[in-house]
Design a protein that fits this description.
The complex is a heterodimer of chains A (about 270) and B (about 220).
Chain A lengths: L2 H10 L15 H17 L4 H16 L3 H26 L5 E5 L2 E4 H27 L2 H10 L4 H30 L8 H32 L19 H23 L3
Antiparallel strand pairs in A: 1-2
Helix pairs in contact in A: 2-3, 2-5, 2-9, 3-4, 3-5, 4-5, 6-7, 7-8
Chain B lengths: L5 H6 L6 H21 L9 H10 L1 H18 L7 H16 L6 H27 L6 H11 L4 H30 L2 H4 L5 H5 L13 H6 L5
Helix pairs in contact in B: 2-3, 2-4, 3-4, 3-5, 3-8, 4-5, 5-6, 6-8, 7-8
The chains are: A mainly alpha (about 270), B mainly alpha (about 220).
Chain lengths: ~270, ~220
């Protein structure tokens, strides 16, 4: 039996990784197209209803994807921190004809409130698409899907290793911070004192991270990372059905139509 | 090299270690910002990795670190994506300054904070004005709102709020980059694309871009 057929036989025993949820098992790329299209529709269609409706759809989708409570909490926080400030600044500072009330130097006008609501909703629809996508799709699955479409394994290594390094380096930084505290470096008190603590904490962490890259390079070389042959994967994604690509295409077509409509004056 | 497409070609000639430096640079950006928050410092300090990788590996890896850091930050706070071009420029500039040997000297490193802060302040303010109409939803946005409420016009308020913030941010950033570069062992510099600058060696001759993969591997960092 040649190696090719052996690999094929082995392949029949593997099952694609399922997350046990209809929405989360979709191909990350089609999901991305659909969510971006929704955000584009929110930005292209004028008025207040569409962007707010899109935001609501995102929350519903999150519940359909089984990440509802966590996503709603994140999204509400984003609304409170970013959306609210975007709205408030516009509502308070933009000039207009219909003044609701005056507040010192500030005038709250109908135009300001409308503009603020519209802008905040559009920005939050875009933010909602991004946060929902990453709530539904793990980085690992996304990179696997992209690799299947021909993205270099080096590109996925860079992204996945970045997330891993963030966690690792963050943990090391906290350890070094505690160690330096134990050695008498002040991390509380005045601004200058706290700023002075920054160098002795970060310099050793970053230096060790940089020197560790050599070992990583050797470790990956030992696993044939730089081999010109096609890479094999431990995890497999479910096969993407034709209807899924068609649905993604439909979403994209609607979004394109909305953008064209906006520029050609249909909407 | 069949499985290595555009991405590999993009980084060809930067040696093999560069691909491992990019994730570290991204993590350094992130952790720097986190520690700054932890120590309650009023600055971001989230471009240390971009400038460090730019200064040791070159403009393109530096810009990549900036772009990817920004994209990753956008996952949790999507409005930061509008400022991605800033990080890319920081990376490009850092590579250029690195090649000129600025990060070998304390004073030149300190001086490099000025162009970084100018880019960050001026372009940052311009992006805030263009993309968010001068009112972004972050800490600076509140400062700007206050300045406008006190009677300053929106454009001036943006520049007035951003410039001092950026100088405060970039001076410690370049100093820590300088400190780290001072601490990098020589044996690592040998393998980094711009390491020759810090070893006081002349620039190595560039291999032709069409060189077969095998020669690139032999000339790689393990030599």
């Amino acid at each position: 039996m040649s190696t090719a057929t052996l690999a094929e036989v082995a392949e029949t025993y593997r099952h694609p990784e399922s997350l046990g949820n209809f929405l989360r098992d979709r191909n990350p790329i089609t999901l991305l197209v659909a969510l971006v299209s929704l955000a584009v529709v929110a930005a292209a269609v004028p008025g207040l209803i569409t962007p707010f409706a899109v935001c609501a759809v995102f929350v519903l989708l999150a519940f359909a994807g089984g990440v509802g409570p966590a996503y709603t909490a994140t999204y509400l926080k984003l609304w409170a921190v970013v959306g609210f400030i975007l709205f408030l600044l516009r509502a308070l500072l933009l000039d207009g004809e219909h003044v609701y009330f005056t507040f010192g130097n500030l005038q709250v006008t109908a135009e300001g409130v409308y503009e603020g609501l519209r802008f905040a909703a559009v920005v939050m629809a875009i933010c909602g698409a991004v946060t929902l996508f990453f709530a539904l799709v793990t980085m690992r699955r996304l990179m696997l899907a992209l690799e299947m479409r021909g993205v270099s394994p080096r590109a996925s290594y860079v992204l996945l290793a970045s997330f891993q390094s963030m966690t690792d380096l963050g943990a090391t930084a906290k350890v070094v911070l505690d160690a330096q505290k134990a050695r008498g470096i002040e991390t509380e008190g005045g601004l200058i004192t706290r700023a002075k603590a920054f160098f002795p904490v970060l310099a050793p962490v970053f230096l060790s991270a940089m020197t560790a890259t050599e070992e990583r390079a050797i470790a990956l070389d030992a696993r044939a990372f730089n081999s010109p042959a096609a890479h094999s994967h431990l995890v497999q994604l479910p096969r993407t059905a034709t209807w899924e690509w068609l649905a993604a295409g439909l979403f994209a077509a609607v979004a394109t139509a909305c953008v064209m409509g906006r520029f050609l004056g249909w909407l | 090299m069949a499985s290595n497409g555009y991405f590999a070609r993009l980084l060809r000639g930067y040696g093999r270690l560069t691909i491992f430096m990019i994730p570290i640079g991204i993590a350094i950006n992130f952790v720097g910002g986190q520690i700054a928050l932890l120590l309650k410092l009023p600055v971001y300090l989230d471009s240390i990795g971009t400038i460090l990788v730019g200064a040791t590996c070159g403009s393109l890896p530096g810009a990549l670190v900036g772009l990817l850091s920004n994209a990753i930050n956008s996952i949790t706070s999507p409005q930061t994506f509008a400022y991605g071009i800033l990080s890319v420029i920081f990376g490009l500039l850092a590579g250029w300054f690195g090649r000129m040997g600025w990060f070998r000297s304390f004073w030149l490193s300190l001086l490099s904070a000025i162009p970084f802060a100018l880019v960050g302040g001026v372009l940052g303010a311009l992006i805030t004005i263009w993309v968010f109409g001068g009112l972004a939803g972050d800490g600076t946005g509140i400062v700007i709102g206050t300045l406008v409420a006190l009677g300053m016009d929106l454009t001036t308020a943006n520049f007035a709020a951003q410039m001092p913030m950026d100088i405060l941010d970039k001076v410690p950033t370049v100093l820590i980059v300088y400190a780290i570069i001072r601490g990098i062992p020589k044996r690592l510099f040998v393998k980094l694309p711009l390491g020759y600058v810090y070893l006081g060696k002349p620039a190595p001759k560039l291999a032709p871009a069409t060189a077969p993969a095998t020669t690139e591997q032999q000339a790689g960092p393990r030599s």
